């Protein structure tokens, strides 16, 4: 059952800054409302009230609305016109497609002297003989009935023979009320059976199915159950299986194709059936929440993640010893929707709640990193300097191969740039001889020139 709440009224008072005390018009149509309440206390200045296409069975709680001019209750379950005497300013009343069967209840509108339009199309009372004549004669203030203007001549004719018309209307009302009473009893009976479910078998009927309780003799001890009873049980079992095997589409078709009278009960049943179907569909379509994405595994491994599915370019600037990440974010997206987090081993960018995370090829310094947005392309550029002490990988150079064919003695003279005439042949011979004993092709002086950091040989 849907109730009229203060929040519901405020949400429909946007044109009045959500203030309901001074509200003059409110629309509460198609809300499955089953009772009119609270409006006469919250909205005393109300002039127009839309309540069409709901499940309201009775007109009530509107007598405080002294300024109400238009009340729309079309497509509801109203069966009686009542409780409108306090609506002194009422000019238009719409009861199209309801269940008003007591036509004499329109006489309660005599007190609404400003009433000019009345709509009763689609109600059972419109099928009564003398319907229009009776309404026109009973409500002299009316100018339009069911959208048709009431002329002066029609009003004069309606007053003639009014007593006879009123008598026929009363008789037709009694017939209709008896019919409605039987419809209500049938609806209650069907509702009770639906709640109780399948009938239980009485003890006497259960005994009658057993052999020896039906007053007959059974000479065949092997067949203790009569054949007809067995067939009945099998047929009943088959029917239950067929009923249980009906698909949802078959049940839906059976519900709508089942003949029934158009009554407030049947309309309410159809509405509840649609409501249950809608809720069942919503339960099926409810998506289970996704498990949070793993960004870092329990053993500390950082994962690469690209939830926003953005293109990127990761480069290394060897001259400046930095790592540059160019992330192609949306060009016209506000920068406030992005969040950047740089760690020594990875970089994380949150774009509109979606995470982009990338493992870096080397350790960087987060405190010296910068994030800039390109004014032309809108790309986000992260510049991350390498950490101090990080070994920079370089391509090893191949060793130079000497093509000189000088002997060790000549090479020594060339390195030292000495004049052989100033040194004795014994000294040079001793140097060469000592280096040759070590099994190497070059002299000590040659090693000294190539590697100046090597300490001199003592």
From TrEMBL:
Please give the SMART domains that the UniProt record associates with this protein: LRR_SD22, LRRcap
Q: Which Pfam families match?
A: CS_DNAAF11_C (PF23602), LRR_9 (PF14580)
InterPro entries reported in the protein's UniProt record: CS_DNAAF11_C, Leu-rich_rpt, LRR_dom_sf, U2A'_phosphoprotein32A_C
Tell me the superkingdom of the source. Eukaryota
Keywords, A to Z, come to: Cell projection, Cilium, Coiled coil, Cytoplasm, Leucine-rich repeat, Repeat
**Subcellular localization(s) per the UniProt record:** Cell projection, Cilium; Cytoplasm
Q: Where is the signal peptide?
A: none
Chief place where the protein resides: other
Which Gene Ontology terms of cellular component type are present? Answer: cilium; cytoplasm
SUPFAM superfamilies assigned to the protein according to its UniProt record, in alphabetical order? L domain-like
Ranges for the region named Disordered are 176-301, 392-425
Using the record's annotation, list all stretches that form the U2A'/phosphoprotein 32 family A C-terminal domain: 128-146
Q: Where is the composition biased (Basic and acidic residues)?
A: 176-204, 266-285, 407-425
Instruction: Mention one GO biological process in which this protein takes part, according to its record.
Output: outer dynein arm assembly
Instruction: Spell out the family assignment given in the record's similarity comment.
Output: Belongs to the tilB family.
Please give the name of this protein.
Answer: Leucine-rich repeat-containing protein 6
């Amino acid at each position: 059952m849907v109730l009229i709440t203060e929040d519901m009224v405020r949400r429909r008072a946007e044109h009045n800054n959500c203030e309901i005390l001074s509200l003059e018009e409110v629309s509460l149509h198609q809300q499955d409302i089953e009772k009119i309440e609270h409006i006469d206390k919250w909205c005393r200045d109300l002039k127009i009230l839309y309540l069409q296409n709901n499940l309201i069975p009775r007109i009530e709680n509107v007598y405080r609305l002294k300024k109400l001019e238009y009340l729309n209750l079309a497509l509801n379950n109203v069966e009686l016109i009542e409780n409108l005497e306090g609506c002194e300013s009422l000019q238009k009343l719409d009861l199209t497609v309801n269940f008003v069967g007591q036509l004499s209840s329109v006489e309660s509108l005599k007190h609404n002297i400003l009433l000019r339009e009345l709509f009763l199309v689609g109600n059972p009372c419109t099928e009564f003989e003398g319907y229009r004549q009776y309404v026109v004669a009973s409500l002299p203030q009316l100018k339009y009935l069911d959208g048709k203007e009431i002329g002066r001549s029609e009003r004069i004719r309606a007053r003639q023979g009014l007593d006879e018309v009123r008598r026929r209307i009363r008789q037709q009302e009694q017939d209709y009320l008896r019919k409605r009473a039987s419809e209500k009893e049938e609806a209650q009976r069907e509702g009770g059976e639906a709640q109780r479910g399948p009938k239980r078998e009485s003890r006497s009927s259960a005994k009658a199915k057993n052999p020896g309780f039906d007053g007959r003799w059974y000479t065949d001890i092997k067949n203790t159950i009569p054949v007809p009873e067995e067939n009945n049980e099998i047929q009943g079992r088959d029917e239950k299986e067929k009923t249980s095997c009906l698909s949802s589409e078959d049940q839906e078709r059976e519900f709508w194709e089942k003949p029934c009278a158009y009554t407030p009960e049947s309309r309410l049943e159809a509405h509840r059936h649609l409501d249950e179907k809608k809720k069942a569909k919503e339960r099926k379509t409810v998506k289970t929440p996704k498990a949070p994405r793993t960004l870092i595994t329990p053993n500390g491994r950082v994962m690469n993640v690209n939830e926003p599915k953005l293109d990127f370019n990761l480069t290394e600037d060897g001259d400046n010893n930095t790592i540059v990440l160019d992330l192609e974010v949306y060009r016209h997206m506000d920068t406030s929707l992005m969040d950047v987090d740089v760690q020594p081993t990875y970089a994380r960018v949150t774009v509109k709640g979606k995470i982009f995370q990338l493992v870096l090829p080397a350790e960087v310094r987060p405190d010296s990193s910068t994030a800039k947005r390109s004014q032309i392309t809108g790309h986000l550029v992260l510049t991350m300097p390498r950490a101090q002490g990080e070994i920079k990988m370089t391509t090893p150079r191949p060793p130079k191969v000497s093509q000189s064919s000088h002997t060790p003695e000549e090479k020594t003279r060339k390195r030292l740039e000495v004049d052989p005439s100033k040194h004795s042949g014994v000294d040079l011979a001793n140097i060469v001889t000592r280096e040759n004993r070590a099994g190497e092709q070059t002299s000590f002086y040659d090693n000294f020139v190539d590697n100046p950091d090597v300490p001199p040989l003592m």
